[in-house]
Request: fold
Amino acid sequence: MDIEEFFESMPFAQLLGVEITDVEDGHAEGYIEMREDLSWNADRVMAHGGVTFTLADTVGGAALVSRVDQPVPTIDMRIDYLSAGTGDLRAEADVVRLGGDVGTVDVDVYATTDDTLIATARGVYKTG
Reply:
């Protein structure tokens, strides 16, 4: 399975502009270029929480798919927003547990301008 192509061909990921930039055994990285239409603030471009969440969920799923080579629907995701995302965002995800039917992934989301950690997430995905 071409993981980058699989995730980037998802209509919602295409709409937001999510790009998977690196995928290897249990690790993935991705990127989203901020635009005015992804902002929650009319006066300043600041990532809507849903944009940050979608980036984390997509990159987290890619990390797990690199281990199981099949689509992995999200069961649950918890995210902590630590700072406003005022520019382009990048995410790094690592599989922390892979069981028979469920996989768990930790994701960090950063502002690309200064590497500020803007969110941390833990996703749980169905693998079997």
Q: What stands out?
A: The mean pLDDT is 91. The longest strand covers residues 89-98.
